[in-house]
Amino acid sequence: MAEQPQKLKNLSTALNDHSAEGIEILTSEPSRLFGLMLWLIVSMLIAAFLWSFIGKSPEMVTAQGAVRPDSEVRRFYAPIEGELVDIFVSEGQPVAEGDILARLNARGAVEAAARALDAQIQLEAAERDYDHFPERKTLMLRKTAALERQIKVEEQLHERRLAEGLTKLKQSQKAKLQEVLSTRDQARRSLEVARKEKGKFERLLAGGGVSRDEVELKRSEYLSARANFRVAEAKLGELEFNLSQEDANATAGMEESYQKMVQSRIELEKQQDEIENEENKLELDLRSARLTAEAASRVSFNHIDEENFLLIRASESGVITELSFTQAGDKVQANTPLGGIAPAEAVSVLEIQIKESDRGLLRVGLPVKMKFNAFPFQRYGFIEGTLEYISPTAQPSSAEDKSPVFKGRVSLDRDYFKVDGREFKLRYGMLALAEIIVRQRRIIDLVLDPLKKMGG
């Protein structure tokens, strides 16, 4: 037979089933338990109060931040304006240098590539001229050395002419002049003797002492002596003229020698300036060609596919951190960044914004605990790190109140969470709360701080 369910008795009926001693035992046990519990609670409160004066708890400053690479994000651009046709990457995707990131329909791409090719040809010509210049420079330097030797010889000849030429000329002229002067003086003396003899014989002729033929002979001798004297005078004048001509010719010769030496010096300086100017011109042409080729190299025929679309390639290996354009048909202006690439060797750090009121006790080297929104710390824990940088000046925050904040950077002990034996790396842009342990304070001080603030 099935058992009948037992009916519950009310309290008065249950108490009637027990004796007075049983009822006393039942009513006394709860009071003892209550007293013991009350004593334990009071003891714990007293112990906690006493411990608050001895025990210490960390004082923390919290700051919001996001994961960023420790190096600058490299932007990749569209070199000319166009329309986005395809985008082949997404944020967080790793890329290698040279990978195709996007395609643009750029109408001026072919013309720009042609200009780049022409600039490359000009650069190669400039490099060729610059490379061949040392050979020409060697020949020009040899010519310069020959001119220097020629100038040295001309200087020596000129100095010798100055030292010896005029002296020898004067000596020769002096000898000639003395000879002519001696001849003229002799002719003058002969003329004087002939004049006296002629006068003497003319007086004797008047007294009949000599014949007329003798007088005529003396007259002839006088006329001959006078003619000889005049000839000597003429030779002296001619010699003086010749000597002045010789002086003029000697001076002109020395002047010509000096001018030739000066002309050689000018030619030497001109040759030296030509070497320097040509070298500077080649360097300038090469630098200009390099700049032109570099500016034009942003678009080449290697950047254009078979459909005449402009290919945007990764300038280096890394991870795509952001994309400014994602929809086909987007209009892209020249030199507008399409996105950013964090270098492959970049290390993840947490960039935080520290309130001005929390800046006072912070210093580089303090330990930090980071709780990430994408990995709730109640389940996955936190990542530890170190505060490694604080900006020297405050800047307006991005909040509406524009309150001043200091920028900080926290290094991570690890950049991943381990879940079920698998590592999940942090992604750039993930948000986290950084708890920076500033110092250890007594618990009683932490409890009294709110009361102190309320009191004034």
Describe the structure.
The chain has helices at residues 11-16, 20-54, 109-207, 212-296, 377-380, 443-455, and strands at residues 56-69, 74-77, 82-87, 94-95, 100-105, 310-313, 318-323, 331-332, 337-343, 348-355, 367-372, 383-390, 395-396, 404-412, 416-419, 422-425, 431-442. The chain is an alpha+beta fold and 456 residues long. It folds into 3 domains: 56-70 and 347-455, Beta Barrel (Elongation Factor Tu (Ef-tu), domain 3), CATH 2.40.30; 74-106 and 309-340, Beta Barrel (OB fold (Dihydrolipoamide Acetyltransferase, E2P)), CATH 2.40.50; 113-296, Helix Hairpins (Orthogonal Bundle). The strands form 4 sheets. Strands 1-10-14-12-11-17 form a 6-stranded antiparallel beta barrel. A 4-stranded antiparallel β-sheet has the order 2-9-7-4, with no helix packed on it. Strands 6-5-3-8 form a 4-stranded antiparallel β-sheet, with no helix packed on it. A hairpin with a 7-residue loop joins strand 13 and strand 14 (404-412). The longest helix has 99 residues, at 109-207. It is elongated and about 225 Å long. The model has no long low-confidence stretch (mean pLDDT 78).
